[in-house]
């Protein structure tokens, strides 16, 4: 009887003991709060210093990736040291690997996308579009609207900087004798590019982050189409009346597409479709579909290279690509169809900057700083006010960096609020010329005609478009809140 009684008591105690063991195991996996620790203070100081150095790139001529890479290394170094003091360094290493995986998926996706864009540039697809627009004998006002709408839709699948520079080249080419048109057209292009890139998961780093983290599905981004269109149209309508009415005189030009150009464009479409299918149907990372598309491009280049030997380039076709010389040499042919030549021309400084930014912000989040900021933003303020304020900050701070920081905070907000955040971070960069990559690119491309001060003059109507797009979002996507 005594033995059976003891066994009964043990049976009653087992659930509580198991619960205690589970609680202690969960506690051991919980990240340490280092916000008041020396490692936290050092990490915060290093990240702020690195970001200031990155923003001063044009003054110091120090590429922005260098301080960010160093900052990321130092932050995780002190985090692991702090965890080693507690004998839990394996937790910090696992957190680093998790952040690294997120970056690798982003890197592979962008690498394939930009490789295709470089291939299209070599095939003169963008030059053909530019020449077609320039030689249509359109008025300044017609060109203003055509370039705006084209870049609005182009930027939902093409890198924003590439799309902006392409249409900026058109504006500069037709407005050589009219700086006012060039200035207004460039402002319009910046706004349209940022707006167009905000309603597609492929349109920019911030939307790609949200899609990659599974916050919003591929098709859910298109709910932002009308708000983004309004964001573009409101300032464009205001600028329309300041445009010259005359028709510019343009010299005729012609660009012949080389063999394989149209098929390359088709392959890019197939690659995007593969990324979507891999994500939505197979639940694999979109980057896996993009890498499959890269293999198609490699085989297509192999086919072109092999068949080109039997049918060499004409002298005019060779001049189009290489500018002269012996066009039948194998060396030039291999360079033309070398996929690694296209990969080598990627914006590696930007890609490495994002590595530093993502790993550094991930480190600050693991320390506990981003949780504190999240409680301040989404606890003290309403999610709507917080998202609007964050969007305004994107006029000064890179929107991809801001979006990754918010994702690391894991705020508990509705789908409608995630869409609002995606919208405000995407279009908020249009408020200043330096607020987005297209703006910075056009400052250099149309130097002296498109300036920071010219953009600032139209800031009030751009801000009006910003709040108008938010209002439209609440109107048409009310069911998402």
TrEMBL record:
Q: How does it sit in the membrane?
A: Multi-pass membrane protein
Q: Does the keyword Secreted belong to this entry?
A: no
Cited InterPro entries: Cit_transptr-like_dom, NhaD-like
UniProt cross-references to Pfam families, sorted A to Z = CitMHS
Q: Taking every annotated instance into account, which residue ranges of this chain make up the domain Citrate transporter-like? A: 52-426
Report which residue ranges the record marks as coiled coil. none
Q: Does the keyword Signal apply?
A: yes
Q: Membrane-crossing residues?
A: 38-56, 68-83, 103-120, 143-174, 224-243, 286-304, 350-368, 388-407, 419-443, 455-476
Q: Which UniProt keywords apply?
A: Antiport, Ion transport, Membrane, Signal, Sodium, Sodium transport, Transmembrane, Transmembrane helix, Transport
Give the location in the cell. Answer: Membrane
Signal peptide range equals 1-18
The family annotation for this protein states:
Belongs to the NhaD Na(+)/H(+) (TC 2.A.62) antiporter family.
Alphabetized PANTHER family for the sequence: SODIUM/PROTON ANTIPORTER 1-RELATED, SODIUM_PROTON ANTIPORTER 1-RELATED
Supply the name of the protein: Sodium:proton antiporter NhaD
Q: Which organism is it from?
A: Methylomonas aurea
Name the gene that codes for it: nhaD
């Amino acid at each position: 009887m005594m033995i059976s009684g003891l066994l009964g008591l043990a049976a009653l105690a087992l659930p509580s003991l198991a619960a205690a063991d589970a609680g202690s195991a969960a506690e051991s996996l919980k990240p340490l709060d280092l916000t008041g620790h020396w490692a936290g203070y050092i990490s915060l100081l290093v990240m702020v210093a690195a970001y200031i150095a990155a923003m001063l790139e044009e003054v110091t001529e120090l590429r922005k990736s260098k301080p960010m890479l160093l900052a990321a290394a130092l932050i995780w170094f002190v985090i692991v040291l702090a965890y080693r003091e507690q004998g839990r360094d394996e937790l910090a290493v696992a957190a680093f690997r998790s952040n690294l995986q997120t970056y690798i998926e982003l890197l592979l996706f962008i690498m394939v996308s930009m490789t295709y864009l470089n291939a299209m540039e070599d095939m003169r697809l963008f030059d053909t579009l530019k020449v077609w627009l320039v030689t249509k004998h359109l008025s300044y006002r017609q060109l203003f609207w055509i370039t705006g709408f084209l870049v609005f839709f182009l930027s939902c699948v093409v890198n924003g900087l590439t799309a902006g520079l392409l249409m900026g080249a058109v504006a500069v080419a037709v407005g050589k004798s009219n700086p006012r048109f060039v200035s207004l057209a460039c402002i319009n292009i910046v706004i349209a590019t940022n707006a167009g890139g905000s309603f597609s998961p492929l349109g920019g780093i911030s939307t790609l982050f949200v899609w990659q983290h599974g916050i919003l599905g591929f098709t859910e981004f298109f709910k932002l189409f009308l708000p983004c269109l309004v964001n573009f149209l409101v300032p464009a309508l205001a600028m329309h009346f300041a445009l010259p009415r005359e028709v510019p005189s343009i010299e005729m030009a012609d660009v012949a597409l080389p063999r394989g150009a149209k098929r390359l464009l088709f392959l890019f479409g197939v690659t995007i479709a593969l990324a979507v299918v891999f994500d939505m149907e197979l639940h694999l990372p979109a980057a896996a579909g993009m890498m499959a598309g890269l293999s198609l491009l490699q085989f297509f280049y192999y086919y072109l290279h092999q068949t080109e030997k039997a049918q060499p380039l004409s002298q005019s076709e060779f001049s189009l690509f290489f500018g002269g010389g012996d066009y039948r040499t194998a060396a030039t042919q291999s360079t033309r169809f070398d996929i690694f030549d296209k990969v080598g021309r990627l914006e590696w400084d930007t890609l490495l900057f994002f590595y530093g930014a993502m790993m550094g912000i991930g480190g600050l989040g693991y320390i506990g700083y981003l949780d504190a900021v999240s409680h301040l933003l989404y606890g003290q303020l309403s999610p709507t006010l917080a998202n609007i304020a964050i969007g305004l900050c994107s006029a000064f701070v890179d929107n991809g960096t801001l979006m990754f920081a918010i994702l690391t905070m894991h705020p508990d907000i509705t789908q409608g609020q995630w869409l609002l955040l995606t919208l405000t971070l995407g279009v908020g960069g249009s408020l200043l010329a330096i607020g987005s990559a297209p703006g910075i690119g056009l400052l250099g491309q149309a130097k002296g005609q498109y300036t920071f001060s010219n953009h600032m003059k139209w800031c009030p109507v751009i801000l009006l478009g910003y709040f108008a797009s938010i209002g439209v979002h609440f109107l048409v996507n009310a069911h998402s809140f």
